[in-house]
Amino acid sequence: MLAPHPFGHNITEQTLVESFSGLRQWEDRYRQLILMAKNVPTLDGSLKTPETELSGCENKVWLGAELLENGNMHFYGDSEGRIVKGLLAILLTKVEGKTPQAILADDPLILFDTLGLREQLSTSRASGLKALSEGVRQLARKAL
């Protein structure tokens, strides 16, 4: 498996909900996003290619995936920005280990609503999050 990480395994949607549920202030959620970013391993330079670099994000972002033998997908990524990297961590938690069909049948951005994050994002970060989500969906379509 390329670029293993804890998202979708050790860090699950349930643990995210528990981590964010007590946070009422945006500043607290912001700090939690930065903590999430610290759990994203730095992507090896060989995986930071023009093919994995996403456009539409404020910071440089790389997103890749591989289809595993069991038919599930493994996603990996990195970003130069801490907040974007935290958003990536949450997105990876939502989609990691699912089949391409399951990914395409679900809107991964709903988790950001559940965590109370999407409404607080600036326009440029919201646009970047949408680009991340679309990148995941494109990789899932490609895997079909």
Automatic annotation (TrEMBL):
<dbReference type="InterPro" id="IPR017763">
    <property type="entry name" value="Cysteine_desulfurase_CsdE"/>
</dbReference>
<comment type="similarity">
    <text>Belongs to the SufE family.</text>
</comment>
<feature type="domain" description="Fe-S metabolism associated">
    <location>
        <begin position="17"/>
        <end position="137"/>
    </location>
</feature>
<dbReference type="InterPro" id="IPR003808">
    <property type="entry name" value="Fe-S_metab-assoc_dom"/>
</dbReference>
<protein>
    <submittedName>
        <fullName>Cysteine desulfurase, sulfur acceptor subunit CsdE</fullName>
    </submittedName>
</protein>
<dbReference type="Pfam" id="PF02657">
    <property type="entry name" value="SufE"/>
</dbReference>
